[in-house]
From TrEMBL:
Record: residues binding Mg(2+) 1: N87, D103, D107
This protein's UniProt keywords: Hydrolase, Magnesium, Metal-binding
Organism name: Bacillus chungangensis
EC number: 3.6.1.15, 3.6.1.6
Protein name: Nucleoside triphosphate/diphosphate phosphatase
Family assignment from sequence similarity: Belongs to the Ntdp family.
Active site: R23 (proton donor)
Catalytic activity: a ribonucleoside 5'-triphosphate + H2O = a ribonucleoside 5'-diphosphate + phosphate + H(+); a ribonucleoside 5'-diphosphate + H2O = a ribonucleoside 5'-phosphate + phosphate + H(+)
InterPro entries xref list: DUF402, FomD-like_sf, Ntdp-like, SA1684
Function (record text): Has nucleoside phosphatase activity towards nucleoside triphosphates and nucleoside diphosphates.
Binding site for Mg(2+) 2: D105, D107, D120, E123
Amino acid sequence: MSVPMEGAKIQIHSYKHDGKIHRIWNETTVLKGTKNLVIGGNDRTMVTESDGRTWITREPAICYFHTDHWFNVISMIRQDGIYYYCNLGSPFVYDNQALKYIDYDLDIKVFPDMTYSLLDEDEYEYHRKQMGYPEVIDHILKRNVERLIHWIHQRKGPFAPDFIDIWYERFLTYRH
């Protein structure tokens, strides 16, 4: 697997378990790229949904992807604080065209006060049956929900108090 270069602009492709494209983020600036970790930043980037509809993100975001974890974290920087949107999904791969992962429906939304909500459990159950998620995937995802909640409580990884400040500042240097 190749590694995206710092400062490069890449796309992020989210797929479903059946291999169909789910969503594409048109442009994310790589702030750190290793074989195991990609941290990116974007602001007002175009997003294309599977049905072809497009929309533009409203605020700057710092994205965290890791090959050892079945989740990724999008930290949205808003006027009233940082909101985190955590997607339960496969570890990423990068193929010189885009960073790619499988979205497994479950999400955790974290608010600036670090309270959180588990979202889309019904969608997960529906797709689990419809697409035949293997039992092993179900166990991995449930274990990673627990890991993610632990990280939120411990303020670990992208939830660490200075994480967003450091990476957002780096993102701003690439924008100028």
